[in-house]
Amino acid sequence: MLALNRLRLVSTAAVIVLQVLLPQLARGEDVLSPTEQRGLVFVRVHCARCHSIDKLSPSPLKIAPPFRTLHERYPVESLQESLAEGIVTGHPSMPEFRLDPGQVADVIAYLKSLER
Questions:
Q1: pLDDT tens digit string along 31-49?
Q2: What is the model's pLDDT at position 26?
Q3: What are 84-112's pLDDT values in tens digits?
Q4: Would residue 61 be called left, alpha or beta, if left means φ above 0 and alpha means ψ between -120 and 50 degrees?
Q5: Closest by alpha carbon to 38, among 86, 102, 112, 84?
Q6: Structural contact between residues 41 and 25, judged by C-beta atoms closer than 8 angstroms
């Protein structure tokens, strides 16, 4: 009886995991690493008001480039220093950001994930 209950519990857990993961995989979405997930959270909070932060939508502010196209302009790794010291160029309404080294790594990892 105890083994049957364990089997039911494991089966239920497996179904829940599949219900969460399969829709992402069916839509072709990449599963993000923890570093990329933290980068996504940062850009969602601080950048999404102006920039498109996904692979499809337009930027809410027309002059703000979609993040998915940044790698077409230059290697996104080249943004590390600017993110750490504060980006002061960009679109005119862009606030200045200074990120700590962990945040820089997270944001760069997320930007790199948009290249896949």
A1: 999 999 999 999 999 999 9
A2: 46
A3: 998 766 667 788 888 999 999 999 999 99
A4: beta
A5: 102
A6: no
The answer on 70 and 46 residing in a single domain is: yes
CATH number of the domain encompassing residue 88? 1.10.760.10
Q: Is 58 in the same domain as 89?
A: yes
**What is the count of structural domains for the chain?**
2
Which residue intervals of the chain are DSSP H helices? Answer: 2-26, 34-46, 70-73, 80-85, 101-113
74: helix, strand or coil: coil
pTM, rounded to two decimals: 0.72
**Is there a single domain that holds both residue 49 and residue 101?**
yes
Give the residue numbers spanning the domain of 7. 1-31
Same-domain pairing of 6 and 61? no
Tokens 């160029």 — which residue? 89
Give the rounded percent of residues in the chain with a pLDDT score beyond 90.
Answer: 60
- For residue 116 the two structure tokens come to 């896949």
